[in-house]
Amino acid sequence: MTLLDKDGVQLTVDDTVATVTLNNPAKRNAQSPALWRALAEAGKLVPGTVRIVVLRAEGKSFSAGLDRQAFAPEGFDGEPSFLDMARGSDSELDATIAGYQDAFTWWRRNDIVSIAAVQGHAIGAGFQLALACDLRVCADDAQFAMRETSLGLVPDLTGTQPLVGLVGYARALEICATGRFVHAEEAERTGLANLVVPAAELDGAVQDLAAALLAAPRDAVVETKALLRGAVDRTYEEQRAAERAAQARRLRDLAGVTD
């Protein structure tokens, strides 16, 4: 069932699995404000019955990053250029960027597990979109790069926090400041990728991972994800308490005990 198909984004749902596809391969799935709005809308349209959301892309590249048209004086049709945006007030600029970030925030909701299937180039905004997901399965030709600094910018689409969490501060700084490519082998070795497979096996590997995730009871996965996501911000004792509270909820649920 197709719920959305516009501005380079398609959302389909098959029972408990939703698939978001970047479908503008002619432009290597370059990103724009319209695409970000479509991604944010897709997040709102995902039914509550969905447990797994797969993010994939058509063509040879996952996403080549921000469409350079954004920096042209004329911008996109019906959109202000980034140069025009820079002339606005601080509050206007902050609100605009926050709106763009909405496309990248919903993938880590506790009620779903999101999987990015990455092939070819994932550059800049493309890298950050892959980082927005919980898990990343990569083809052996995948190449990540954070190129914002080469444009005099910073990564601002929610990618910095998960990148530091995955590879550590020093490596994250080096990756972002140099803009170099991180190839599939390094991505798997450093924890950026959960799994690397031959390109022809990418879809099958994602399907196998989704099936494995679906084998566990939904509520247990939701509670576990919430525990793990909050662990970074808790002390050891606070995490112990959170584990006890979550387990108590699961035991009562399994026993049919209500408050």
Apparent shape: globular
Main beta sheet strand tally, sense and closure: 7 strands, mixed
Total number of helices: 10
C-alpha end-to-end distance: 38 Å
Strand content: 15-25%
State mean pLDDT (0 to 100 scale): 95
Helix content: 40-55%
Structural class: alpha/beta
Q: How is the quaternary structure best described?
A: single chain
Describe the structure.
By secondary structure, the protein is an alpha/beta fold. It contains ten helices and ten strands. The N and C termini lie far apart (38 Å). The model has no long low-confidence stretch (mean pLDDT 95).
Fill in the keyword field for this structure.
259 residues, alpha/beta, seven-stranded mixed beta sheet, three-stranded mixed beta sheet, 10 strands, 44% helix
Short description:
The protein has 259 residues and is an alpha/beta fold. It has helices at 33-45, 82-86, 90-105, 125-132, 160-167, 169-178, 184-190, 202-214, 218-231, 236-255, and strands spanning 2-6, 9-14, 17-22, 52-57, 113-118, 121-123, 135-139, 143-145, 182-183, 195-197. Helix 1 crosses helix 3 (90-105), helix 5 packs across helix 6 (169-178) and helix 9 packs antiparallel against helix 10.
